[in-house]
Amino acid sequence: MKTVLEVLCVLEDLDFDVRYGVVFLSTPMRLWSTDPAVGLAAPNQWETQILAGEDATIGPKLRSIRVTLDMQDVPLGSMLGYINEISGIKFTADATLSDRRISMKASDLPLALMLKLLSLQNGGDVRIAAGAVHIVPRRQ
Fold first, then answer.
1. Widest pairwise Cα distance in the chain
2. Would residue 115 count as lying in a domain?
3. Residue 79 CB contacts under 8 Å (≥ 6 apart), including other chains
4. How many Å apart are CA 89 and CA 25, to the nearest integer?
5. End-to-end CA distance of the chain
6. Which helix (H) or strand (E) is 21 found in, with range?
7. 77 within domain boundaries
8. Alpha helices per DSSP H over the chain
9. Nearest Cα to 85, choosing from 65, 100, 107?
10. 136 bridge partner residues
């Protein structure tokens, strides 16, 4: 697979990178720029938060719980409700994102990775506070 991507990139003046378990294929400027307006989205905030108490236990759970789901055109709030049921972790979505329609199919995916993919495609960020995982709009 890597060889095919390398050949494609040479022929089409593109580049690729693997982030969050996803292959990103784009122009080098878009893929590698340090300008936030040009490059790929930054990691979710929870990955850099300093967590204490109950919040400190959530990060390891997000990394260890594996999720299989197939949801098509459902509100983000409903999807988070389902994930809450299967994981035992409380999830909330900002009111501006809660009704956003989501489609996602994942098989045996770490919950942390699923949240990255979910938030990246919907302009959201993931934060941990007050014993819950919150999906909020990404700050520019």
1. 52
2. yes
3. 69, 71, 102, 104, 118
4. 33
5. 34
6. none
7. yes
8. 2-12, 28-32, 54-64, 76-87, 95-98, 111-121
9. 65
10. 125
Instruction: Give me 9's structure tokens.
Output: 């990139």
d(CA 24, CA 18): 6
Tokens describing residue 124: 């959201």
- Domain assignment present for 38: no
Residue type, 46: W
Phi-psi region of 73 (alpha: psi -120 to 50; beta: other; left: phi over 0): left
Per-residue pLDDT of the chain (140 residues; tens, 9 = 90+): 677 888 888 878 888 888 777 788 887 877 777 666 666 566 778 788 888 999 999 999 999 999 999 999 999 999 999 999 999 999 999 999 889 998 888 888 899 988 888 887 777 889 999 999 999 988 74
- 70 plus 9 within the same structural domain: no
Supply 65's token pair. Answer: 């719980």
Residue with structure tokens 């300093």? 50
